[in-house]
Request: fold
Amino acid sequence: MYTANMSTIVSVSLDSFLLCLPVYGNAFARFLLVCLFAAVGPKILQYIAKVVLQSVQLFYVLLKMDTPSYVLMQNPPGLPGIAVTWLVCSVRGSRFIIDWHNYGYTIMALAHGQRHPVVRIAKWYERFFGRFSSHNLCVTRAMKEDLRSNWNIKATTLYDKPPSIFKEASLDSQHSLFLKMAKDHSPFKPRARPDSNSAERTAFTELHPETGAVTLTPGRPALLLSSTSWTEDEDFSILLKALEDYEQFISNGAALPSLVCVITGKGPQKEHYRNLIDQMHFQHVQICTPWLEAEDYPILLGSADLGVCLHKSSSGLDLPMKVVDMFGCCLPVCAIHFPCLHELVKHGENGLIFKDSQELAEQLKTLLADFPSTQSQLHSFRRHLRESGQQRWHESWTQTVLPLLAADHR
Reply:
């Protein structure tokens, strides 16, 4: 819940709901059983059952709440949330705000194709019911124009911004995290050194017992980071092929650092890519795919040398939140091209944009050629991010959204 002087805002997300319905008699119990049986039947019945159950559930949850001034709903997911939330707001006199992060029908089209009947219905549904909101927020100027020109919806652009927990990590924080990760992931274990002493080491850092100071390990590998939900809109074969090319650059005599590539997250295609990674043979590149605790992820971002983003927007109109978080940690990024990416990644200023694995491999070679020199292009990207005075989420909300709501009370 977000509280402002003039209003109370309840934020709605279908992903967070638990089934919390009371059972009123045998009729309702039979209704639930029918829906549950349908959910294991043909695909179309599964969709119908899911929509019916979520509609009843969401309707119940919203009616149980104290009446808010505003209900803010992120889309996607918007089916059935947009219609149900609009109906409840109409009955209770609340204003309805949709936060457009993407179009749900374009995500469904990744699995079913644009011409599938379910995708067509979902597109009509979003366009029709999306017009009934009191206010609309969206995440890019491109989406704002698309909503206006194609769906006659007026929206305000509210760029995603990183929360304050995303920042550059101190050496002490890096060392603690690397020690923790070294227990389960060999790329973080220290490399053998002939002058070994009693210093506590990881592959990237060492703690000097006589001073208690943490320093970066001389000759350390570069830490490359990517995060993913392992879904169809991210093709990680592009990164794997680029790493093979990077390995070949070193084998051919290029003066490049060894590379540790960390790919965080979990999702439906993770095992597929894990199998591909297991079949690859590197001497200068190591890959690990950990699942991080929530408090460790910002520290790892703030410890990395370079980020890679393979997110391709299903609509071409949203921006990858992972890059927003990376920039919050002053982490330069190589990101795959799609139409509105330039609204976030400024090619040659805070990162680079690539179109295929070959271009990504060349970018890795260029950015890491002088690693870890402070005179490199990679360091200049980081310096630009530090000096840009990035706005944080709360500041962006206060500057963009609160004036919009205040206008309702004049």
